[in-house]
Amino acid sequence: MFRKLLLWFLLMKYAAHKGDGSDFIYNGFRGANISLDGAAEITSHGLLILTNSAQQKGHACYPIPLHFKPSYGKNQSFSTNFVFAIVPKYRNVSSFGAAFVISPSKEFPVGQVGQYMGIFNPTNNGNLSNHIAAIELDTVLNPEFGDINGNHVGVDINGLDSITSAPAAYFSNMSGRFKNLSLISGEPMHVWVEYNGVQNQLNVTLSPIDLPKPDLPLLSSMVDLSSIMLDDMYIGFSSSTMSVPSSSYILGWSFKMNGQAPALDSSRLPKLPRIGPKKKSELLTIGLPVIVLFSTLTAISAVGLIVRRKIKFAEILEEWEHQYGTHRFSYKDLFMATKGFTDKELLGVGGFGRVYRGVLSASKMEVAVKRVSHESRQGMREFISEIMSLGRLRHRNLVQLLGYCRRKRELLLVYDFMPNGSLDKSLFDHPNSMLTWSQRFGIIKGVASALLYLHEEWEQVVLHRDIKASNVLLDNEMNGRLGDFGLARLYDHGTDPQTTHMVGTFGYLAPELTRTGKASTSTDVFAFGAFMLEVACGKRPIDPQSSADEVILVQWVWECWRRGTILAAADPKLLLDYVMEEMELVLKLGLLCSHRFSAARPSMRQIMQFLDQDVPLPELSSDGLGAAILSVGHYKGSDDLRVSYTSSEQGLASTSSVTGSVLSGGR
Fold first, then answer.
1. 254: Cβ–Cβ under 8 A, 6 or more apart, which residues?
2. Which of 205, 465, 548, 580 is geometrically suited to a Cys-Cys bond with 217, CB 3.0 to 4.6 A?
3. Which residues pair with 78 in a beta bridge?
């Protein structure tokens, strides 16, 4: 009897040991018991797909929690390896990649798409209570989380600010050097993740699928996971996309606790979907007689000629437009996307046209389509050339221009869709969804960063010339993005802009524009000053409906400053719920940007330094500011102002009374 009890005890102890050393292997996922969430699915061929379109998140987890902590509290060692591939819809453009995740839960209901990888959100990102460790395979530049590379591998603990990261690369055992890899090449890649629970060492190794495991890891970090891991944790994968569609695949996966994970058999892994036409076998042409080959080529040439003729006559496309390639959308696609440009899809009406929401049928991507008229056929080529140049701008606080469509005298511009609309609607039209001070201050800094990029950091100087709250759009995370480049002007660094047409909107126009009509980076700064005051005070730059001393916003803020009560200008809807130092900084900086003399205004680089509080704001001069305020408009009194402004409201948003319309050739 004693022997039976002893044998039973030993068997139970052995079984418990096997539980701690859990291992599994999936050479493909056909019939596999995997927990799927969001967009994740398993194809009939055994491919695990995490995402395959825009604005998606997907998760796949091993269905049983694993015991990471034995009774003595130190984390167990583990290793895993998997084969993944990220296939972008558009070459070399992807949305944020994928991650291997160790988590207390196999579901992430509050995880957001985009840079949050479907795991975190702005509220819980970085919280110690998350108990999440992840290996991210990130494909997009994301400075918000400390990313300065893009296309990198990182180790994340409880948030997306990686404790260590490196550009995607693998160590070549033959050359003894690291070689770069593109995570969005569309090719399968092998990843090994190994953790030594005794030495607290985490290694991550990367290589193409057709090469053996490199001798050196890409990342090697000392990290104690015992304070992060709970006793039982789930393991799996997460991926997310934003506005650009891409597909994230897992082809195979193995795992082992306290040992080396089983090796994957590349010959048994499922194949990725073919991209593009199937390659013809060379054997089909080598053995064919010369006469058959000649006949085939002749037939192909004839068919190609017919197809080219049909395409030529199906849609008029001038020769000079070919250089813009995929930036040109077909009118049919945009007509279908906007349901025939119906009023139900109308987002707003601006100075130069109407803006519609659309969904592209091929990619299911949401876009905003702006219809404008261009009366000058001669200036169309120059205008489209500049529009496409602006389409190459890349900044997280700019609305992305995706392309254009030209039909007769109409021009359609296609932009990223911003789900939260324009800033002015949030400030003035939606009292039940009021912006907090933290959101307002973040929007101000975001727009300032975008203007610094336009003025100094891009290959040319870009003058926006119409900075105002209605031209700042809010993405799904309430980040401010500067849009509507219909009045923008480009010129080379070190030269002067040639435009002498005064354009813009009343209340944002620098005083020198009324004399010379010549725009500059300083006139953009003046408009940005009015914008800052508008956001901080919750008042429009010129409001004829206000009391006499508050009609001109900058004059009223100056009077508050002169009396020593500048914080009285703060938006009363905030109910004093703001950081006083930040509010005072924004109000004073708005006045400084509104200086009468353009040379006295700060540059956008200086403005960013003031907003980041890297340098102190200079003391304001009462005389200088007084002169600046009186030159805001050449109005003799509030009655004149009311009449002038009212007439402008009945015209265009960017008023024709002060605008030589760029869309009519007047640039």
1. 23, 24, 25, 26, 80, 81, 82, 261, 262, 263, 264
2. 205
3. 195, 257
